[in-house]
Amino acid sequence: MAETPGRAGRTVELDGVWPAWPRVAGAVRVVLRVLAILIWTVICGLPQAVLIFLPGPGKVRVPLLYWRGCCWCMGMTVRVTGAPMVHDMPVVFVGNHTSWLDIPVLGAALPACFIAKGEVGKWPVISIISRLGRTIFVSRKVAGAARENADIRGRLTQGDSLILFPEGTTSDGARVMPFRSAFLAVAESEVPHRLQPFTLVYDRLDFLPVRRADRSLFAWFGDMELASHFNQIARHRGLRATIVLHPPIDPKSGLSRKRLAQQTWHQVAVSAAEIRRNRD
């Protein structure tokens, strides 16, 4: 048992104290991050609740600022590499989906609104944040397809860029699942726009390259609860996400939806494997 001299000749037992310190520090980190995000949400949410009804770029810039602040609160650094982002027309960004973390990470890097499944619009608190971020909710039901497609066309007409996850769900973080061609129906819109694939990989944990055994730590899939996964992630420091932007595609280039899905999936999957392999 390790001992160290204390006052008046007393000794202080250290065994059992230091082993518990990382757990205590992790718990404190979680609490501080929750409080910081809540305060930041109120600060950004109040003006955004007004801006979404007004013309101008403010309703796009505030969400960018909000998500960047959330990443900072989480100790997450976002690195963006690859092809330049398109600025002269609306863009539909399509890429892999691993976790709820993808939302703040992509929201901090891309000036775009998310396309999300309808259930998200019913989640407590999350639904409010999503609506303030001008998320488009889709039910994936035939009955609502026409209205949802009209909403998407309307956003593109207004000049809004969109973020879409063609996998249709989150993965385990070790692979990129095939892209569903049905999700790329937006590419058939007559509104001029570009399709830009992206790859998102979490490649730093506690300031070190993510090991193969730790990849699943970032993944939120199956029946995982959001609160428990947040607690798991928020205990760590030195997180990093790398986003690789691939060359934009003209959806009017003659490729079918199936071919577009295959081509964009291949770009994303190959890039994700390369990032994990390089570990730089």
From TrEMBL:
Pathway: Lipid metabolism. InterPro entries: Plipid/glycerol_acylTrfase. The chain crosses the membrane at residues 30-54. Pfam families: Acyltransferase. This is 1-acyl-sn-glycerol-3-phosphate acyltransferase. One of its GO terms (molecular function) is 1-acylglycerol-3-phosphate O-acyltransferase activity. GO terms for biological process: phosphatidic acid biosynthetic process. Residues 91-203 form the Phospholipid/glycerol acyltransferase domain. Keywords: Acyltransferase, Lipid biosynthesis, Lipid metabolism, Membrane, Transferase, Transmembrane, Transmembrane helix.
